[in-house]
Specification:
By secondary structure, the protein is an alpha+beta fold. It has two helices and two strands, in the order H-E-E-H.
Length: about 50
């Protein structure tokens, strides 16, 4: 029964991409990581933003 449920959820799911970007803090100069889960088409826009 569990296999049936998993199979139906996988069929209806969308393809998503996890993007990770390093951002330098203007105050301390330290780098932090910003993570976001989005559609593959939006990754380039996310990486170009500051």
């Amino acid at each position: 029964m569990a296999k049936k449920t998993v199979a139906t959820l996988q069929g209806a799911s969308k393809k998503l991409t996890k993007a990770i970007k390093m951002v330098k803090s203007p105050k301390t100069g330290a780098y932090t990581f910003v993570e976001a889960v989005m559609a593959p088409e939006l990754v380039d826009e996310f990486l170009k933003k500051k």
